């Protein structure tokens, strides 16, 4: 059982790369962590974790259809009230993906404990640091809840 689960969607690898930075940040916090592609993530992955971090590319001004389907079905089934979390994304032109994903997480009852990070495609060292910081914060909050 992991304190935190990171669930991401990625077609060409940019969001996956961001997810690896978030993973490194959660590990720095000392929390246990699982990382899953959205196709592989289960209701139980969410149910068992105290913290949930979702990541998606911007696809047509929104977060991806796969991630939207995950949020509306498995996330809701896992009853994520009382969980802490955060969101991240990648984009090329505009940043609506992150705003919408954060909004939907809030609506489903997740308490966002770190500011979301949207990475312009490949990002750089500075953004990598912010992604790790996001992971660390969620890890720390999740550990408090596991204690
Ligand atoms: C079908 C498609 C639609 C996209 N639509 C948008 C968009 O509306 N706005 C935007 O900023 N980027 C858009 N992008 C760019 C992706 O968000 C960006 O390249 C992202 O980093 C891809 O993430 P990935 O490598 O994890 O798949 C689109 C990419 C694809 C393939």
TrEMBL record:
Q: What region holds the Flavodoxin-like domain? A: 4-139
Which Gene3D superfamilies does this one have? 3.40.50.360
> Annotated Gene Ontology MF terms?
electron transfer activity; FMN binding
Which PANTHER family does the annotation name? ANAEROBIC NITRIC OXIDE REDUCTASE FLAVORUBREDOXIN
Protein name per Swiss-Prot or TrEMBL: Flavoprotein
């Amino acid at each position: 059982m992991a304190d935190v689960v990171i669930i991401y969607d990625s077609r060409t690898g940019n969001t996956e790369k961001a997810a690896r930075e978030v993973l490194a940040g959660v590990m720095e916090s000392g929390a246990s962590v699982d990382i899953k592609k959205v196709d592989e993530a289960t209701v139980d992955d969410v149910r068992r974790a105290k913290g949930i971090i979702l990541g998606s590319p911007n696809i047509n001004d929104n977060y991806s259809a796969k991630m939207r389907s995950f949020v509306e079905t498995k996330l809701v089934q896992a009853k994520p009230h009382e969980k802490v979390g955060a969101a991240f994304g990648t984009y090329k032109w505009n940043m609506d993906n992150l705003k919408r994903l954060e909004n939907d997480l809030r609506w489903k009852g997740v308490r966002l404990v770190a500011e979301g990070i949207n990475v312009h495609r490949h990002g750089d060292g500075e953004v990598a640091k912010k992604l790790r910081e996001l992971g660390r914060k969620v890890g720390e909050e999740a550990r408090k809840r596991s204690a």
